[in-house]
């Protein structure tokens, strides 16, 4: 009887211990947070966003936390511009860094991996164009545009609702006063002895009244249709369109200068014919007093090179100058920088193609009627 009683007592103790263990486990499971399952859970926060010299947008103190139990890899920040105005004050363009433009209002930028229960904080930079530069002030000015940043990883996010953060109004930090920039370009009338390299002479001048601070003058080089740029433009430049449209920003200040133009040469490569007109554009980011002389056409005028008819002259104004330490001459040698304007004279090219198509159809129909037509084309010169 004693041994039976002891056996029953031992069984009761084991059963109680098992029930207690099960109860503790059940309680732990009830209290466990949802993200205890292995996975990634990113959360984003953001400080002030500014737009300033060098066409740079700075996303200050972008913080990405991973409260999950797995490492977040291939982390990406998707940045969207949210405009409060009819015309977007800022639009994205070609980027100097690893960011990739998806549209005029969206870019994606790679971020470091984020370990489980870890946080990374950094300033993120992107490049944008201001639609209408205005004279700056000593204090940052709120713009009618905000930024929305969404972070993601290669892994699925367990709670994606907190992956997005929206900034306050972007602050414009450009401080230079309004200036009168003038662009110059000489017609291209020569080619190298191999026949495929062309040289264009350009210059730009700040006619004042104010100087332009470092990084607050922009220069754009748009190759004529049928050509492409055949040289490096420097570290402060980026390609809006590869080998076709280059935008640079100045590295030094540009005081008012009324000296005659001191042209510098930039190299182009002839890749097809007919050729059209290119552009050289200059502007101060603090506002432009006379926009009418900010663009100089790049015209190719070489015998034997078929051309789309030019809609105007590229002869430079009678007066001008090229002078400060951040002038385009430095950009061409690889030490300076400029601003983007998209678009080429494609309408004329399309019109010429349509005329050729119509003429071809007429010739075909007349041939079907067994008529013999002789067509003589005079040589076209632009």
Explain this structure.
The strands form four sheets. Strands 1, 2, 3, 5, 8, 9 and 12 form a seven-stranded mixed sheet that branches. Strands 6-7-4-10-11 form a five-stranded antiparallel sheet, with no helix packed on it. Strands 17-18-15-20-21 form a five-stranded antiparallel sheet, with no helix packed on it. Mean pLDDT is about 80; it is low at about 1-5, about 15-30, about 310-325 and about 335-380. Strand 2 and strand 3 (about 55-65) form a beta hairpin. It contains three helices and 21 strands. The protein has three domains: about 1-30; about 40-170, Sandwich (Immunoglobulin-like), CATH 2.60.40.1510; about 180-345, Sandwich (Immunoglobulin-like). The protein has helices at about 1-30, 330, 345-370; strands spanning about 40-45, 50, 55-65, 75-85, 90, 100-105, 105-110, 120-130, 140, 145-150, 165, 170, 180-185, 195-210, 215-220, 225-230, 235-240, 245-250, 265-270, 280-285, 295-300. It has about 375 residues and is α+β, with helices and mostly antiparallel strands.
Helix percentage range = 10-25%
The major pleated sheet works out as:
7 strands, mixed
CATH-defined superfamily of the largest domain: Alpha-macroglobulin, receptor-binding domain
Oligomer: single chain
- What's the N-to-C terminus distance? 123 Å
Shape annotation: globular
CATH architecture of the largest domain: Sandwich
Mean pLDDT: 78
- Remind me, CATH topology of the largest domain? Immunoglobulin-like
Rg measurement, Å: 32 Å
Number of helices: 3
Q: What is the count of distinct domains?
A: 3
List SSEs in N-to-C order.
Answer: HEEEEEEEEEEEEEEEEEEEEEHH
**Uncertain stretches:** 1-5, 17-32, 312-325, 334-382
Number of strands: 21
Which CATH class of the largest domain?
Answer: Mainly Beta
What class, by secondary structure content?
A: alpha+beta
Q: What percent of residues are in strands?
A: 25-35%
């Amino acid at each position: 009887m004693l041994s039976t009683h002891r056996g029953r007592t031992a069984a009761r103790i084991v059963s109680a211990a098992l029930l207690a263990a099960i109860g503790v486990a059940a309680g732990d499971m009830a209290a466990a947070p949802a993200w205890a399952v292995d996975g990634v859970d990113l959360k984003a926060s953001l400080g002030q966003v500014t737009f300033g010299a060098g066409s740079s947008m700075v996303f200050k103190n972008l913080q990405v936390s991973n409260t999950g139990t797995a490492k977040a890899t291939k982390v990406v920040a998707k940045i969207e511009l949210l405009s409060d105005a009819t015309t977007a004050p800022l639009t994205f363009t070609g980027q100097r860094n690893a960011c990739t433009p998806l549209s005029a209002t969206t870019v994606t930028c790679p971020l470091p991996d984020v370990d489980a229960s870890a946080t990374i904080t950094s300033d993120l930079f992107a490049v944008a164009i201001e639609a209408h530069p205005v004279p700056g002030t000593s204090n940052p000015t709120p713009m009618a545009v905000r930024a929305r940043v969404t972070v993601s990883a290669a892994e699925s996010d367990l709670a994606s609702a907190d992956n997005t953060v929206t900034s306050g109004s972007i602050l414009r930090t450009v401080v230079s006063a309004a200036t009168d920039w003038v662009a110059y370009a000489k017609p291209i009338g020569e080619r190298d002895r191999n026949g495929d390299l062309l040289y264009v002479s350009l210059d730009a001048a700040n006619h004042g009244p104010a100087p332009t601070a470092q990084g607050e003058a922009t220069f754009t080089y748009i190759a004529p249709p049928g050509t492409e740029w055949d040289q490096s433009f420097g570290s402060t430049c980026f390609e809006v369109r590869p080998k076709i449209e280059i935008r640079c920003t100045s590295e030094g200040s540009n005081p008012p200068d009324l000296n005659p133009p001191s042209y510098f040469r930039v190299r182009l490569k002839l890749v097809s014919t007919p050729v059209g007109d290119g552009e050289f554009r200059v502007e101060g980011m603090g506002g432009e007093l006379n926009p009418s002389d900010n663009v100089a056409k790049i015209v190719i005028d070489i015998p034997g090179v078929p051309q789309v008819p030019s809609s105007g002259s590229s002869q430079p104004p009678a007066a001008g100058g090229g002078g400060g330490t951040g002038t385009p001459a430095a950009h061409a040698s690889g030490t300076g920088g400029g601003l983007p304007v998209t678009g080429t004279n494609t309408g004329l090219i399309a019109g010429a193609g349509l005329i050729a198509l119509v003429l071809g159809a007429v010739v075909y129909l007349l041939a079907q009627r067994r008529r013999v037509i002789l067509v003589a084309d005079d040589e076209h010169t632009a």
